[in-house]
Every structure is written in structure tokens, then in C-alpha cells.
């Protein structure tokens, strides 16, 4: 028997009512309702219902014929919804919330924006502009692509006189082909794109060509889980949007006083980007253009917040792409950023903030990705990306991004965590470096279908000062870890077959200091350029060293000597500031080093002409400092008519293919540059 009766509806009306047809507001939350409890015959009597609260129930979908012709506001938070397409039966819907439905994704957001033309607010956010873009620009682009696909591959297959069987056959082939081959926008929206392409293709066949689609239409074929999704650059979408820079959350327009789209210098008649440095190395054509400026980590969502510091960002790996084998295809256009109380996922091409995760009492310092093979329904296994985020509270949050769900936490340290990183060979192994002067190795386990998991501590590395940056040695990531600390650069043996669970450092590296060598200096930037070359930045003004891991560490020998001189290969020219914690990063596949400065600029070094000589066992040190290939200057931005305050670049990271450059600042602005 259904839980919902006439008496219950009258009692739960706000205010209570004596007639069903008089009810305008109805609260059916927290009743453990399932889909079968929503009786269309009973709901059809709620002819004037405008507000309906179904939150905190067990609904997995909506019946297709609830018949609520005047419904304007619907709350479905905290259910088990798997599909949103049935919501099209509520055409007057203006406000919709369905947060904490773990099976719904960004693709479902786009579906409801397309289906509900009157929708203004989705999960509390104004989506009017985006929804108009989805319904108009997106639909126009996809229609054009579907039509072109027919003209190019299928038009000549249809004879002038055709039978019903021929129509059925070509229709089936066309629908399958068009969903596979027509791509548009970011990969995170591929499900929505396939859904719209199928819809457009059916309309095209029916109305443009007169090929009626009757009841024998084939069910939509799902893409095999092991198939690699095909994507193309979302540049086309960007070209349809006015070139205005937006700062998100809330949406505030930044006046782009010097913000013009610049193309590569090979295009005739185009001027060079004003952001390019006036150096001879510019001839190498590594120009980049500013694409988006986002303010998505604001405390309390205030657009007046220019104090929140942004610290860490990392690109999401692509599933089923052989990511661990080929770094060029190991990243998507989606980047995770952290700072203040929030972690954001951003589509670099569109500038869309795809997801946002907040902890009011936290200040996040670091994020890292791993890919876990999890057991889903029916005992099937599927790879999912998991994001670890940590900061001031010493707690690691584990987020299943596709489900938009933080499924657990690890109380790793009693003091703040400065940085985290996953092992490239052991997907569940996570290193956490803390202000307690310890680096811990954790096995985070693999959550089951109910998100139960068990984490365990495998190792503790004792440091003599606070570890700021950590890096696993690429040639032996299960044996050695390198750390840049407040008091120097250290290495530990992390091999787990050794009995000792708590270990001191195995080596400390000396670096030049004027005319002598010293171990006592802050190392606030550390990364590997390739399997052997380490890039480290010290507290010495203007100093970034490149040095050989193997030649330095091998000099230690098998004795008890722990102090080792770093074998310096080169020194990079950088800012003369003595300001700390402006960290560096590398793009090994393209042999680039990046480092921001105290003026909002990004220093870029293309070292491809040097690495061959350095790889020689007796490769000599470059005598002169290597100048930057290019310096990207911070563009002139005006926020509400004013320029932002002094801008420090805390971090700058590129994707593995060096298509995008994400710049994190001290003034709560994430800048995204795109390589021309």
C-alpha cells in the first residue's frame, strides 16, 4: 500500500488544507518515499500545486505522468535519483534543487537546463545565461555537426526509392555513427552531448528528410565502459561567447581593458600578444593568451574577497587512456584547485566551475589525484578518479568526483598538512607532509559499493624541519622520496620491505651559497624535469637550480655519509625577490619549467636544448644562467572599476601536453592561460 494518502497530503500542505485542489505548497520530505509511492492518480488532483518538497527520501526516478501543471519550485535533495529527463513534464518549473543525489552529474544539470525553458535557479545558482547558451548556441552547433555528418557519410547511401527495411537499417546505422563521431565541448559533458546528438539526429531524420521514426526505434546504445571517449577542442564554444572575462561565485564581470584574443604569430596581420616578454627567445613561438580569470574560492561567496590565498592545482587524469604510460594523454581539461575553505574543479577551456567542495573550518593547502578500480553494482569493476585534499586541520578528505561525494577522511596529522602526493605505481599509496616535521605514507584502501574503506599508515619519515614540497624519484618511486624543507633538501629510503616503520633521512643535499656550500636553506620549490634532473628553488634570491639526482646520490656511496653535494647542471635566471613559497612546476613531456613571481608574472623555461647534454654521465654545468624563454606578464584587470591589489603567483601548473597553464594567486584569482 502506498505511503501517500489523501489525508497525508492534506496534513502536509503548507498551510494545512481541506481540499487537494487548493494546495499550493506541499512538504513530503523525510518520509522514506520510493518512486512507487508517487501515485499519478492522486497527484493529478493537485492542480494548483506550485511548491513541492521531496527532499530526504529514497526516490530513484520520477513517474512520467504526475500531472502537476502549475509546479514552479521542486526540492529533491538527498535522494537516490539516477535520471532527470522525466522532469520535462513540469514545463513551468523555475527553481530546482537536487543536491546530494550521488548518481547525478554535470551532464544531468545540462539536461534539465535544456528541457526546462523557464528554469532560473538550479541548486541555488542562477543559470539563466548558461541555460540560454545550452539551448541556443549548443543546439545550433550540434545541429550543424549532425547535418554535416549525414551529408558526408550517409546521404548517398539512401536510394531515391526506399523500403521500410532500408529506412530502418540506415536510421540505426546513422544514429549509432552520429553519437560516436559527433563530439563537442569538454569530455566531462560527453554523456549530455551524446544525448542531445541522438535527439537532434532523430528530429533531423523525421522532419528534414521525412524518415518517420515509429515505435520500432532502437533503444539508445550505451558506450562500452572500456571505449575511450573521443573529444575535440571546445574552442568553438568559446567563439560563440562574448570575449568577457568572468569571475565566478558569484558571477562578476571583470572589465577586460587589455583582454583581446591573440592568435599565434604565424597568422598574417595579427599583432603579438602584449603578455609576451621582449626577449630574443620569443622567436621560439611559445606564446600564450589569457583565457579566464576566476574568483571561485571566496569566503562566503563574497566577490569582495581578495585575501584568500590559492595554493595547489593538479589536472585530472583521463580514465582508460593508458595514463600511466603516456603523459601526453594522461590529463583532461579539468583541473582541481584549492585555497581557503574550498576545492574547485574547473574546465580550463570554458572557464566553468564544474564542482565545488567546501569545509567551513578548513584552509586547503594541497590536492592530488589517483584512479581507483572500484566495485560497482552487480559486482562489476570500474575505474574512478579520486581526489585527496588536505590542509590546516591535518585531515585528508577523499572525494569521489563523479559522484560528487566526499566519502571519507583520514586524520593524518595533528598539525597542518603542507602537501600531498600519490604514488605513480601504487594507486592507494598517499604521502602526506606535515608541519609536525613528518611525512607519512598511507594506504587509503579501495571503497566498496557502500563507500566503506579502511586506511592504514605504512611508514613515517622523520624530518628535521617542516617539509614543504615532496617528489618521488621517477626511476624508483617505490624506493626514494625527495623533500624540500624549511631547513634544506632531504632524501629518504621508502622501500616497504625494510622492517623499520619510522625512518630518519638518508641524505641531505648541499647547494652553493656565495663561495661555499651549505645545507641550511629553505627549499620551497621541488620537481623532476625528467627521470634524473631535479629542479629546486631555494631561499636564495633569484635562485633556481637544476641538478642530477643520480650523480648526486651516487656520490653518497654505501657508507654512513649523509651530507651530499648536489651536482649542479645549471642555474635559471629568476626574480630577485626574497619572498618565499612561490613554488615551481615542470612539464616533463615538453621539457619546460614554470615559476611565478611577486608581480603576477610567470617565468617559462624551455630546456629541450640542454637536456641531451645533461644526460651524459660527464655532462658539464652550463656556465651562464639560463634566461627564461618567455615571461607572461599579468594582464591589466579591473574589478568593479578598480585594479586588484599586489599579486603574488603562489603556484603555476600546466597540463602534460602544455595546452593550458593554470596560475594561482595570493588575491583569490585563478588565471587560465592557453598556449597559442
Structure overview:
The protein has 676 residues and is an alpha+beta fold. It folds into 2 domains: 6-209, Ribonuclease Inhibitor (Leucine-rich repeat, LRR (right-handed beta-alpha superhelix)); 288-315 and 331-675, Methylamine Dehydrogenase, Chain H (7 Propeller). Helix content is 15%, strand content 31%. It has 9 helices and 40 strands. The strands form 9 sheets. The protein has a 6-stranded mixed sheet, with no helix packed on it. It is globular and about 90 Å long. The chain starts with 5 loop residues before the first helix and ends with a strand. Mean pLDDT is 82; it is low at 212-285 and 321-329.
Describe the structure using short key phrases.
single chain, 676 residues, alpha+beta, Leucine-rich repeat, LRR (right-handed beta-alpha superhelix), Methylamine Dehydrogenase, Chain H, six-stranded mixed beta sheet, 9 helices, globular
Write the layout of secondary structure elements.
Elements: H1 6-12, E1 25-27, H2 40-43, E2 51-53, E3 73-75, E4 95-97, H3 106-115, E5 121-122, E6 125-126, H4 128-153, H5 164-181, H6 190-208, H7 235-239, E7 245-247, E8 252-255, E9 288-294, E10 310-315, E11 334-339, E12 342-347, E13 353-358, E14 364-375, E15 381-391, E16 395-400, E17 405-411, E18 417-422, E19 429-434, E20 438-443, E21 456-462, E22 467-472, E23 480-485, E24 488-493, E25 502-503, E26 507-513, E27 516-518, E28 523-528, E29 533-538, E30 543-548, H8 549-554, E31 563-565, E32 567-573, E33 584-587, E34 592-596, E35 602-606, H9 611-614, E36 630-632, E37 638-639, E38 649-654, E39 660-665, E40 670-675
Parallel strand pairs: 1-2, 2-3, 3-4, 4-5, 21-25, 26-31
Antiparallel strand pairs: 5-6, 7-8, 8-37, 9-40, 10-11, 11-12, 12-13, 14-15, 15-16, 16-17, 18-19, 19-20, 20-21, 22-23, 23-24, 24-26, 26-27, 28-29, 29-30, 30-32, 33-34, 34-35, 35-36, 38-39, 39-40
Helix pairs in contact: 3-6, 4-6, 5-6
Amino acid at each position: 500500500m502506498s505511503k501517500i494518502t489523501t489525508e497525508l497530503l492534506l496534513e502536509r500542505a503548507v498551510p494545512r488544507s481541506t481540499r487537494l485542489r487548493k494546495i499550493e505548497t506541499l512538504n513530503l520530505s523525510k518520509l522514506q518515499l520510493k518512486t512507487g509511492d508517487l501515485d499519478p492518480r492522486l497527484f493529478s488532483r493537485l492542480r494548483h500545486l506550485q511548491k513541492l518538497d521531496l527532499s530526504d527520501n529514497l526516490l530513484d526516478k520520477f513517474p512520467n505522468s504526475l500531472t502537476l501543471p502549475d509546479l514552479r519550485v521542486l526540492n529533491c535533495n538527498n535522494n537516490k535519483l539516477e535520471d532527470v529527463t522525466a522532469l520535462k513534464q513540469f514545463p513551468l518549473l523555475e527553481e530546482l534543487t537536487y543536491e546530494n543525489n550521488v548518481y547525478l552529474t554535470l551532464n544531468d544539470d545540462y539536461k534539465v537546463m535544456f528541457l526546462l525553458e523557464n528554469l532560473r535557479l538550479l541548486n541555488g545558482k542562477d543559470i539563466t545565461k548558461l541555460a540560454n547558451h545550452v539551448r541556443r548556441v549548443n543546439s545550433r552547433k550540434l545541429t550543424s555537426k549532425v547535418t554535416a555528418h549525414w551529408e558526408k557519410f550517409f546521404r548517398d547511401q539512401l536510394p531515391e526509392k526506399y523500403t521500410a527495411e532500408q529506412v530502418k537499417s540506415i536510421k540505426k546505422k546513422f544514429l549509432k555513427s552520429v553519437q560516436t563521431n559527433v563530439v563537442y565541448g569538454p569530455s566531462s559533458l560527453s554523456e549530455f552531448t551524446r544525448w542531445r546528438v541522438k535527439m537532434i539526429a532523430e528530429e533531423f531524420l523525421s522532419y528534414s528528410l521525412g524518415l518517420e521514426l515509429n515505435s520500432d526505434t532502437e533503444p539508445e546504445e550505451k558506450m562500452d565502459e572500456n571505449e575511450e571517449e573521443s573529444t575535440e577542442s571546445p574552442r568553438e564554444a568559446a567563439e560563440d561567447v562574448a570575449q568577457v572575462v568572468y569571475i565566478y561565485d558569484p558571477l562578476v564581470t571583470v572589465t577586460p581593458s587589455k583582454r583581446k584574443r591573440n592568435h599565434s604569430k604565424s597568422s598574417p596581420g595579427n599583432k603579438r600578444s602584449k603578455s609576451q616578454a621582449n626577449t630574443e627567445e620569443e622567436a621560439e613561438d611559445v606564446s600564450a593568451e589569457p583565457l579566464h580569470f576566476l574568483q571561485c574560492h571566496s569566503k562566503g561567496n563574497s566577490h569582495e574577497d581578495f585575501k584568500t590565498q590559492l595554493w595547489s592545482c593538479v589536472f585530472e587524469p583521463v580514465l582508460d587512456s593508458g595514463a600511466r604510460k603516456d603523459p601526453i594523454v594522461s590529463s583532461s581539461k579539468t583541473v582541481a584547485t584549492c585555497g581557503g575553505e574550498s576545492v574547485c574543479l574547473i574546465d580550463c577551456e570554458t572557464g566553468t566551475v564544474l564542482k565545488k567542495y567546501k569545509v567551513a573550518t578548513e584552509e586547503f593547502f594541497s590536492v592530488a589525484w589517483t584512479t581507483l578500480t572500484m566495485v560497482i553494482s552487480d559486482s562489476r569493476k570500474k575505474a574512478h578518479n579520486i581526489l585527496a585534499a588536505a590542509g590546516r586541520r591535518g585531515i585528508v578528505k577523499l572525494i569521489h568526483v563523479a559522484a560528487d561525494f566526499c566519502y571519507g577522511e583520514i586524520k593524518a596529522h595533528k598539525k597542518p598538512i603542507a602537501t600531498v602526493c600519490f604514488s605513480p605505481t601504487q594507486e592507494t599509496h598517499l604521502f602526506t607532509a606535515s608541519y609536525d616535521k613528518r611525512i607519512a605514507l598511507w594506504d587509503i584502501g579501495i571503497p566498496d559499493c557502500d563507500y566503506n574503506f579502511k586506511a592504514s599508515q605504512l611508514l613515517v619519515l622523520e624530518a628535521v624541519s617542516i617539509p614543504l614540497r615532496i617528489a618521488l624519484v621517477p626511476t624508483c618511486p617505490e624506493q626514494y622520496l625527495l623533500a624540500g624543507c624549511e631547513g634544506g633538501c632531504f632524501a629518504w629510503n621508502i622501500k616497504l620491505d625494510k622492517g623499520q616503520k619510522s625512518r630518519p633521512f638518508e641524505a641531505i643535499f648541499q647547494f652553493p651559497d656565495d663561495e661555499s656550500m651549505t645545507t641550511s636553506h629553505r627549499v620551497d620549490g621541488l620537481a623532476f624535469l625528467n627521470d634524473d634532473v631535479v629542479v629546486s628553488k631555494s631561499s636564495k634570491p633569484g635562485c633556481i637550480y637544476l641538478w642530477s639526482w643520480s650523480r648526486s646520490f651516487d656520490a653518497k656511496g654505501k657508507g654512513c655519509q649523509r651530507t651530499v653535494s648536489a651536482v649542479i647542471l645549471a642555474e635559471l635566471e629568476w626574480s630577485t625577490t626574497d619572498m618565499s613559497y612561490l613554488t615551481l612546476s615542470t612539464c616533463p613531456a615538453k621539457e619546460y619549467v614554470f615559476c611565478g613571481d611577486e608581480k603576477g608574472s610567470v617565468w617559462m623555461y624551455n630546456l629541450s636544448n640542454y637536456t641531451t647534454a645533461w644526460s651524459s654521465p660527464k655532462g658539464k654545468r652550463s656556465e651562464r644562467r639560463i634566461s627564461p624563454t618567455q615571461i607572461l606578464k599579468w594582464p591589466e584587470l579591473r574589478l568593479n572599476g578598480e585594479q586588484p591589489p599586489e599579486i603574488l603567483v603562489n603556484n603555476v601548473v600546466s597540463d602534460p601536453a602544455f595546452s593550458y597553464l593554470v596560475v594561482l594567486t595570493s588575491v583569490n584569482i585563478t588565471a587560465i592561460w592557453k598556449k597559442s
